[in-house]
Design brief:
It is a single chain. The longest helix has 22 residues. Helix content is 39%, strand content 21%. It contains eight helices and eight strands. It has a domain of 155 residues: Rossmann fold (3-Layer(aba) Sandwich), CATH 3.40.50.2020. A five-stranded parallel beta sheet has the order 2-1-6-7-8, sandwiched between helices. It has a three-stranded antiparallel beta sheet with strand order 3-4-5. The C terminus is likely disordered. By secondary structure, the protein is an alpha/beta fold. α1 packs parallel to α2.
Length: 224
């Protein structure tokens, strides 16, 4: 059990601290992942930004993910999706549009606070407060790989054991603290797992200034 998201992030940072990282960037999946991302970024002297992806909900079962959609609009569907909903159905298209609209809303909100951090050539750590079906993380990783990072590390406190092999194919390493074979909800592993709001995410991002090395890399890339 973890006391809260910050406690879990500090334990994750201990597993990452001795790893050589090149101009590190922590990308957090909102909302809960941003709390972990802030701690990791401070502990690892890294930049902090977000990566947007949203789960696609099963009809009549909003807590069940049948896949996810990334910020770029790319859709990842769970292998079990055809058993739940036809991948070509009107429902799935409506759900995709709904989640893309929410991604656009969050993107507008967050990019008003800070521009998107450069990814190319950097050590990128992608974090969330846990991985159950893996859909949201997988969608985020597909989108991220197109931006040319030096390496991608997934760092989470809890991951469903049966998702490890799928994640490993899309990143250089998966760093985790717990990998149970089954669980009901990520929140059951935290004493405090309160809801994180948009205002909390914005305040966390406002508290971070880009590292000088990252600013230099951004200037160099735009000057070439």
């Amino acid at each position: 059990m973890f006391r809260d998201r910050e406690d879990a992030a500090r334990q994750l940072a201990l597993k990452l601290r001795q790893r050589p990282l090149q101009n590190p960037l922590v990308l957090a999946i909102p909302r809960g992942g941003v709390v972990l991302g802030a701690v990791l970024a401070r502990e690892l002297n890294a930049d902090l930004d977000i990566v947007l992806a949203r789960k696609l909900r099963a009809p009549g079962q909003p807590e069940l993910a049948i896949g996810a959609v990334s910020e770029s609009g790319e859709v990842y569907l769970s292998p079990d999706c055809p058993q739940i909903v036809d991948p070509m159905s009107a429902y799935l298209e409506r759900e995709r549009r709904h989640q893309c609209a929410e991604i656009a809303r969050r993107k507008s909100l967050i990019r008003a606070i800070r521009p998107q951090a450069p990814v190319a050539g950097r050590s990128v750590i992608v974090t969330d407060d846990g991985i159950a079906t893996g859909s949201t993380m997988i969608a985020a990783l597909h989108s991220l790989r197109q931006q040319g990072p030096r390496e991608v590390i997934v760092a989470v406190p809890i991951v469903a054991r049966d998702q490890l092999s799928s994640l490993a194919k899309l990143c250089d390493e998966v760093v985790y603290l717990l990998a149970p074979r089954s669980f009901l909800a990520i929140g059951q592993f935290f004493h405090d797992f309160h809801q994180i709001e948009d205002d909390d995410v914005c305040e966390i991002l406002r508290s971070f200034s880009p590292r000088k090395e990252a600013i230099y890399e951004t200037h160099r890339n735009t000057s070439v």
